[in-house]
Prior knowledge:
Layout: H1 3-23, H2 27-30, H3 41-60, H4 69-74, H5 80-100, H6 121-147
Helix pairs in contact: 1-5, 1-6, 3-5, 3-6
Amino acid sequence: MSVHALRAVIVRDLRALAREVEAYPDDETLWRAMPGVANAGGTLALHITGNLRHFLGSQLGGGAYVRDREAEFARRNMSRKELVAQVHAAIAEAERTFDRLVDSQLAGLFPDRVAGRSLNADVFLVHLVAHLGYHLGQIDYHRRMTTSEGRTVDAMSIPELPEPM
């Protein structure tokens, strides 16, 4: 695993997150609760951006973002425009962090303990990729259920991945 590969997938998936949020027809639908579904699309988008801004931007990249995890799950009625701005902030922080990282750092420890455990940076970053993909898929299904619209936002876009260097 390389810094280049991690950056490519995380940035691609965050761009897909912005497209998912924009694909909701209105702000209300983004926050609509569905039977049997724990979190609305807006909640999951806030959680993804808070998670990555905290772990990538602040802990690994030394940024100033301060996470409020409880608010990620409690906040409602943020506009799609505001939420997309949060996604773009997460992209900028991820890019800034990956610009500073070198592959050899991935073999070391992640700078802070996570859930009380020390983890290698590469293992935890792969976890963050999987976490992002998991919730991105949930948002896609939430959007399709709340709108009855089956169109895709091409979240797993191969053309968005970089060509070989």
